[in-house]
Amino acid sequence: MVRVVTPSVRLLPNAITVLALCAGLSAVQFALSHNYVLAIGAIGVAAVLDSLDGRIARLLDATSKMGAELDSLSDAISFGVAPALVLYIWHTDTERIGWVTSLVFAVCIVLRLARFNTLLEVEKPPYANEFFVGVPAPAGGLLVLLPLVLVLEYGDGWWSARPVVWVWTVGIALLLISRIPTLSLKTVKAPAKAVAPLLVGVGLLAAAIIQYPLIALAVALLLYLAHIPYSVRRYHWLANHPEAWHVPLRERRAIRRARSTRRLRLRRPTLAGAARLSRLPRNQPEHVVRVRTFPPDGEDRNRRRSWRRMGLRRNR
Q: Does domain 7-185+210-235 fall into CATH 1.20.120.1760?
């Protein structure tokens, strides 16, 4: 079946990309008005729109080379230029070090996007599609604003000192251009049993964002940083286990448990009667179990009891 895409539908993903670009640039205008909460919110809206345009384009079969180039330019401005300018406006200094760190961050965002576009044409193993190379641009644009988020919620502290902000900005910039694997949510598939708990979690997340938006954002960013060691471990494990590339998550867990059992040289658990069954002669079927019986007459019972009272062991 051939799907016919009208020009208006093909325009929808590009329109979402333009909206993300406008939201990112609006963050600079909010920062100039010293309304930093709206500036952070505008970059967050740009991140949400950026996650939707590609999915909608693939869903409608409306992908195009122009859309890919427009998406990269929008990401460079929304998550590179805009956060860098917001930080510089917030921490304007006479030593010009803040401007240098802002430039470094913007340049690293552009380099990260250029590398992403070149890697699209490179053949990769199947497991590599589950990861990004380095921190993606939307996550980097929000992570660099974490000191500002903490200041707006908790006031000034060690996290608001200029050297700390400079080091933080350069550190996030290095994560952007690094080759550290980070999980990609595009390939995450929720099992049927987890749909209801996930919907409950989405409801709780929405309530947290409405009631405590800055705290929810700060917690989400810290959790994202905490997941990086797990992502690196999972990437290297998949690289060393080709048999787990095309299997679902449950089977991957079974493979990991089986290999850990072999490495620790643990014995497999056996049933209570397995040891007795293993002692049976080979010429007898396995389902036959020997049962020792005693004569029912009372004399033999009394004789056995007398041996037990004397503390002796009767020879058989």
A: yes
Q: At what angle do helices 162-177 and 97-119 cross, to 10 degrees?
A: 10
Cα 76 to Cα 21: distance, rounded to the nearest angstrom: 9
- DSSP character string of 212-276: SHHHHHHHHHHHHHHHHHHHHHHHHHHHT-GGGSSS-HHHHHHHHHHHHHHHHTPPPP--TTHHH
* pTM for this entry: 0.74
pLDDT in tens, 74-93: 999 999 999 999 999 988 76
Sign of CA dihedral 14, 117, 81, 86: positive
pLDDT surpassing 50 at residue 274? no
- What's phi and psi for 132, nearest 5 deg? -95, 155
Nearest-angstrom CA–CA distance, 248 and 205: 27
Helix (H, G, I), strand (E, B) or coil at 36: helix
Angle (CA) 126-223-89 rounded to 5° is 110
Residue 253 CA to residue 297 CA, distance in Å, equals: 58
Q: pLDDT tens digit string along 35-65?
A: 999 999 999 999 999 888 888 888 887 777 8
Position 246 scores a pLDDT of: 72
What six digits make up the tokens of 226? 């905490």
pLDDT of residue 30: 94
Show Cβ contacts of residue 146 under 8 Å, excluding neighbours closer than 6 positions. Answer: 159, 168, 218, 221, 222
Strand-pair partners of 215: none
- CA–CA dist 91, 167 (Å, integer): 13
**pLDDT in the model for residue 1:** 45
The one-letter amino acid at 35: N
